[in-house]
Amino acid sequence: MISTETMIPKVKEALRIKTTTFDEGELSDLIVAAQQDLGIAGVIVPYEYSAIVARAIITYCKMNFGLPEDYDRLKRSYDEQKAQLSMTTGFTDWEPWIPTIKDDQSGLLAFEDGALAYKDGESDV
Question: In which element (H, E) is residue 110 found?
């Protein structure tokens, strides 16, 4: 997973925290919670830095730090980011299904799972 040490400065900047005396324990917990939440959704958080995953983690932290006035907007944004990542091959462990098609010249296409379809695609058999 992206290290907490890498993410803390980015989260602090997004939250507009400028003090150096700020206890970073809560931010560390939020970063770990965001990574775990993404993991529950099937997203594999990479070890190396990924801007798109970092953006989702930052949004999660902004949504859950303190009492933000725009919680609902942040929640919708985070849920959309999480949904997009969970459907992206590079951030999940599922392999895309690519059918093997056999064309027997009869006007039918046979897929490896046994399904049949007309070549014109207009109707199933």
Answer: strand 108-111
